[in-house]
Amino acid sequence: MNRRTCVFTSGILFKDGKILLLKRRDDEKIHPGKWDCLGGHFKEFESGEECMLREAKEEIGVEIKIIKSGKVFEIHEKDRRCIVLPYLLTADSKKIKLTEHIEFKWVSPNELKNFNCVPDLVEASKLFGLIK
Known about the structure:
By secondary structure, the chain is α+β, with helices and mostly antiparallel strands. The chain has helices at 48-60, 119-127; strands spanning 4-15, 18-23, 35-36, 64-69, 73-76, 80-91, 103-107. 17% of the residues lie in helices and 36% in strands. Strands 1, 2, 3, 4, 5, 6 and 7 form a seven-stranded mixed β-sheet that branches.
């Protein structure tokens, strides 16, 4: 099988003990209707940090701060291999202005198991010790 490889950032926005979840549109090609975190694909010559800051601003209209980066990990799906650069983030504001997603929620790490989340959100939350 010919699998494609994609590389993207995955940012867990953690503020006041809560994680920001963003709901993907139902017409998305990949993971439609699932709960996601901030992040996305790189522009040419962009660093992981630059990508993360840009994607957050584009997706929620909020300036974020990178608390720390985590160890790069892979996710294998049926038709693609994903290389994920994870970041733990914070922000001064919880005022979210959605541009790409249809809904958002602030949830405690323990509540994540109650949501149908994309795999990188779950893995990054484990990596940063927010969930087991």
